[in-house]
Amino acid sequence: MTTILVTGGAGYIGSHAAKELLGKGFDVLIFDNLSTGKKELVRGGELIVGDLLDKNAVKNVFKTRKIAAVLHFASLIEVGESFKDPRRYYAHNLISSLNLLEAMLEGGIKKFIFSSSAAVYGIPRQIPISEDHPCEPINPYGQTKLFVEKILKDYDRAYGLRFISLRYFNASGADPDGELGELHNPETHLIPNILQAVLGRKESLDIYGTDFPTPDGTAIRDYIHVTDLAVAHVLALQRLLDNAPSEFINFGTNKGYSVREIIAKVEQVTGKKVPCRDMPQRRGDVPLLLASKDKAERLLGWRLRYSDIETIIQTAWRWHQKAV
């Protein structure tokens, strides 16, 4: 069997990708320090508890296992926190990636799938955002993702390391089988925060920004189901394993919903009122983000299956009702 190393494979998106890999017959090796990942989200494969900041631990994985490719999810992801503590974000997201790439090159592994972000684009100049849109991130989190992408371009040119960088928009929803979902602590994503408010696990939903230049004043985002995103990772991996060249690819739906529209959809799905509180905008938030999915469909044959907003919310609702 072909062994794939999944860093951050005990996290939200990483665990869904690991499940998809296992379903496609790959052998999965998960490397996670469990700082935010959860053992209960590992539903197969082998888990190695380790930290990418520990060079020797990372190199040991490649010395003791025959690995064909790497899917790299492990990083810090909170935009607001990246403003408050940029040193932590640059240290973790950059150094950890450099350590991983060094270990890969020493081990002769040159296939790399990178978990990037729409945050690399900054404030959109046109909608939907295509891959050739200028990259001008407006927060340290987005900067770290862009810096890793620049490193990957140099490593491709100099060392022949082939990569596909997946620029996500808003990953959301939960595993349709009910095995996996979001377990962030603290939770920063919109839909689980709405559901936590509905379930009475938090007093209210804070709406950050009601004066954006959008029809209802709240930010508009492109929501993609996490399982559709997991499938995209496997398609990208298979393309690399077939010796395709490096690429940057957006993953979204080319359709957006405002915060208030998402709240209304949750109320429709759950039959419950969402308690809300209006708050000022957060630094680094942009009014509108929508992805062009044309390149993903053209190059990978990728098709959305679960990313209609009702399915996203229904799967998340089932998960959060049982998750503690």
What is the structure about, briefly put?
With 324 residues, the chain is α/β, with parallel strands linked by helices. Helices cover 39% and strands 17% of the residues. The protein contains 10 helices and 13 strands.
Distance between the termini: 35 Å
Q: Based on DSSP secondary structure assignment, what is the total number of beta strands?
A: 13
Strand content: 15-25%
Query: Roughly what percent helix?
Result: 25-40%
Q: Walk across the major sheet and give the strand order.
A: 3-2-1-4-5-6-11
- Spatial shape: globular
- For CATH, the homologous superfamily of the largest domain is named as NAD(P)-binding Rossmann-like Domain
In CATH's first tier, which class of the largest domain applies?
Answer: Alpha Beta
Task: Spell out the blueprint of helices and strands.
Layout: E1 3-7, H1 12-23, E2 27-32, E3 46-49, H2 55-64, E4 69-72, H3 79-84, H4 86-106, E5 111-117, H5 140-159, E6 162-168, E7 170-172, H6 190-198, E8 205-208, E9 220-221, E10 223-225, H7 226-241, E11 247-251, E12 257-258, H8 259-270, E13 276-279, H9 294-300, H10 309-322
Parallel strand pairs: 1-2, 1-4, 2-3, 4-5, 5-6, 6-11, 7-10, 8-13
Antiparallel strand pairs: 9-12
Describe the structure.
By secondary structure, the protein is of the alpha/beta class. The chain has two domains: 3-172 and 224-251, Rossmann fold (3-Layer(aba) Sandwich); 190-221 and 254-292 and 305-322, UDP-galactose 4-epimerase, domain 1 (Alpha-Beta Complex), CATH 3.90.25. It is 39% helix and 17% strand. It has ten helices and 13 strands. The strands form four sheets. Strands 3-2-1-4-5-6-11 form a seven-stranded parallel beta sheet, with helices on both faces. It has a two-stranded parallel ribbon with strand order 7-10. A two-stranded parallel ribbon has the order 8-13. It is globular and about 55 Å long. It starts with a strand and ends with a helix.
